[in-house]
Amino acid sequence: MNELEELRLRISEFARQRDWDQFHSPKNLAMALIVEAAELVEQFQWLKQSESRALSGDKLEAVEQELADILVYLVRIADQLDIDLLAVTHRKIKSNEAKYPADKVRGSSKKYTEYQ
What we know:
This protein is mainly α and 116 residues long. It contains six helices and no strands.
């Protein structure tokens, strides 16, 4: 069993013990994930790019907490839909490699539709 599967089981058990499955529909979990993503963005609001790379202790801790919340909801959504996050992520990376060949896009932030 890999660490992601162990995490999925732990999160699932946490929700089960609290009778939260009734609230954890994919729709509700997706909405909660977006709320947490917004809270992550809030931590970076108005920072310069250089500041966002050198967060202070308290700010870094807040970012860690938001990232953890996002991961919990992401894993929970995948669990509810029986999606293997590692497998679909590997497929997505392979797809992105085809869309964004390194020799064509190196140093560019353009979307793949802008250079094909």
